[in-house]
Amino acid sequence: MIGLAYSLLWEGLLSGALKGTQLFSVREYIRGMASVLAPRDTITSVVGGQGFVFAVVAIVIVTALASWRLARYEIRAAE
């Protein structure tokens, strides 16, 4: 439900209407990655190639967090 609200409100309405909110838009980071891979002057993005950097940082953080949580997880024996 939260993801749907985010997608509709932030990505759909606010990032299209207010230019400053595009820096916090997932869609803009995806457009930045596409603009690096696409031929010149076909796709423009506010973020540019920084989308790749943020994607790598997010993957590292999520992997570290998941590893830490799995290391703390205990399986109890059935009694």
Can you give me a brief rundown of this structure?
The protein is mainly α and 79 residues long. Helices cover 65% and strands 0% of the residues.
Protein model, in words:
With 79 residues, this protein is mostly helical. Helix content is 65%, strand content 0%.
The rounded Rg comes to 18 Å
Number of DSSP helical runs: 3
The chain-level mean pLDDT equals 80
Amount of beta strand? under 5%
- Overall outline: elongated
Could you name the ranges where pLDDT drops below 50 across 5 or more consecutive residues?
none
Structural classification = mainly alpha
| Distance separating the two termini | 38 Å
Largest sheet: none
What descriptive keywords fit this protein?
79 residues, mainly alpha, 3 helices
Break the fold down into its secondary structure elements and pairings:
Elements: H1 2-17, H2 26-37, H3 50-72
Helix pairs in contact: 2-3
